[in-house]
Design goal:
Helix content of chain B: under 10%
Shape of chain B: globular
Strand content of chain A: over 45%
Structural class of chain A: mainly beta
Number of helices of chain A: 0
Helix content of chain A: under 10%
Oligomer: heterodimer
Largest sheet of chain B: 7 strands, mixed
Chain lengths: 119, 114
């Protein structure tokens, strides 16, 4: 059974940094693209970033501030978030792609971790 | 970027009745070389993660009840719930994965019981 478990969310001040993690199990982690998708309070789903076969992609809204990475030996996906803004406040979901390419739908999602940016 | 627009933003349907959600993409998501539409549908209930319902516009994910169906091609797509059940109350999103990045979602359609 595929499981994705996020951790690391919390309250951070504007301009601060945070790293969230996603521990994966139940599938061959290295063989699939992995992404972060977020949902701000009262808003819809917004794709944030994808790691696909070592190639990384970012939404314009986070480019230059967020860094996605993965440790295939630990089956873990990370999102390092720097220079956080109030508008980054959201539940961050880890999502598994259906393949290791760059055209993915998301066939499994974690429960999400809440990141709150506030002073 | 491809913009996905859903309609309506919300709808209320009686139990057992049909619910229809539309999704329009700003450009075609049909790839002629493999005859596939790069369009997925998700169900999102409060406090839960999104759940994949449909991919390739009309392929139902394993375990999804057959009252959920997807149709359409090119730029216009529909998610139909043939007989609404209480557990179907949720927000539904379409997503294109034809031109990525970015993977883009529609704004969501909230389905409630009338």
């Amino acid at each position: 059974e595929v499981q994705l478990v996020e951790s690391g969310g919390g309250l951070v001040q504007p301009g601060g940094s945070l790293r969230v993690s996603c521990a994966a199990s139940g599938f061959t982690f290295r063989n699939f693209a992995m992404s972060w998708v977020r949902q701000a309070p009262g808003k819809g789903l917004e794709w944030v970033s994808t790691d696909s076969g070592g190639t990384t992609y970012y939404a314009d809204s986070v480019k230059g501030r967020f860094t996605i990475s993965r440790d295939n030996s630990k089956n873990t996906l990370y999102l390092r978030m720097n220079n956080l803004r109030a508008e980054d406040t959201a539940v961050y979901y880890c999502a598994k792609g259906d393949n290791n390419g760059w055209q993915n739908y998301f066939d499994h999602w974690g429960q999400g971790t809440l990141v709150t940016v506030s002073s | 970027d491809i913009v996905m627009t859903q309609s309506p933003d919300s709808l209320a349907v009686s139990l057992g009745e049909r619910a229809t959600i539309n999704c329009k993409s700003s450009q075609s998501v049909f790839y002629s070389s493999n005859n596939k539409n790069y369009l997925a549908w998700y169900q999102h209930k409060p406090g839960q993660p999104p759940k994949l319902l449909i991919y390739w516009a009309s392929t139902r994910e394993s375990g999804v009840p057959d009252r959920f169906s997807g149709s359409g091609s090119g730029t216009d797509f529909t998610l139909t719930i043939s007989s609404l059940q209480a557990e179907d109350v949720a927000v539904y999103y379409c997503q294109q994965y034809y031109t990525t990045p970015p993977e883009t979602f529609g704004q969501g359609t909230k389905v409630e019981i009338k």
